[in-house]
Design a protein that fits this description.
The protein is an alpha/beta fold and 152 residues long. The chain contains 3 helices and 8 strands, in the order ααβββββαβββ. The chain has a single domain, classed as Sandwich (Immunoglobulin-like). A 4-stranded mixed beta sheet has the order 2-1-4-6, with no helix packed on it. A 4-stranded mixed beta sheet has the order 3-8-7-5, with no helix packed on it. It is globular, with a radius of gyration of 20 Å.
Amino acid sequence: MRVRPRGQNPLLLAPLLSFWLVACAGDPELRPDDVLRVELGLGDRDQVHRIVIMGGDRERASPLETVVNSGGYVEFVTADWLVHEIVFELDSLSADARAFLERTDQVASPPLLRRDSRYVVHFADGPPGRYPFVLEGNGAPGRGVVVLEAGP
């Protein structure tokens, strides 16, 4: 018979260990894939939010709103073979947000020409706030927004 020291409850240790692993390694849903690890040198602590871009009669982003912590990444990925471009709406940004995107050369993507094309925006040192963007391509323009929150 195994004797457990007083005060240790294995039912409490498992959830605490699980919480600790997620806190240390980051949200598994937001971990970078192998391409971003190799190309950008990202690791398990980097958070990458994915926005899927699709065309048709109207350009669409899924999700329409993405909330990111300071230092996080947003990866725009095309889900079809149509041409797409992501352009942040400079007139709708605060002066600081506009200066941040211009300084980091992240105002607009190049044309994304193939399925699974990517455009990655890094929000390191970006001022918190709303970053609305327009999707341009073959259909009517679409819209979305990235909401940048202050870091933890």
